[in-house]
Amino acid sequence: MSALAALAASSPLLWWREAAAAGDGLASIVDKITGGARVRHGRVKLNIPRLADNGHSVPLKIAVESAMTAADHVRRIIILSERNPRPVIATLYLSPKCGRPEVATRVRLNGTQRVLVIAQLADGEYWSGSAEVEVTESACLDAT
Amino acid sequence: MDARILVPRAATRGQTIEIRVAIRHPMETGFRFDAMGKPLPKNVIHTLTVRYNGAEIFRAEMGSGIAANPYLQFYTVAEASGEVICDWTDDNGNRGSERAAVSVVG
User: Fold this and answer.
1) pTM over cut 0.90
2) What is the ipTM of this complex?
């Protein structure tokens, strides 16, 4: 048992998986986006299927806690993927004129992963939320 | 390019209305090959802006992670009757535009 555990712990694949689960793969990209500013967890909610039959088109709804006034609104929303070949899926710029801090779109996901969304508010602060999506058929493997 | 922009036809002043934009576009990732094995060049709608009576209310910068036939849903506050205009550009330099009228009462 202990030999098995030691083997599992030393397996590079498992190590990589753990790193991915911790979001380490996105840390440098997040830093580039925020200019190194602190990203706090919270105020961003994702509504995305936990299980997607295929990754070609996965509906994603994002809601941010914000009054959407001139002083307190969502400036931009950045959608990030842990496992896509291009991790930045989209950047959405909102304004106080939006009235409601909610957006929806459809994303491609290259396999099971955590989707991370970062929101920058009018005061410049960054908040984030994430969701795990299990993708049974990846977006990048076949020709569709 | 085919596109649809959906807004409520009528709204009361100050009401938050939902706007939905859908564009027919392959959002080619650049990672696929054609039947002859030749790579298909990346071609996505990279920028989309939405204006309401002249003022920008929403903008999207998209990559290949947005699904084919991109769909965006967001909100705006109905202030005055007028038009919601959506403009976009893809990697090939093709531009598209679609508009919808909103009539605001009250």
Assistant:
1) no
2) 0.95
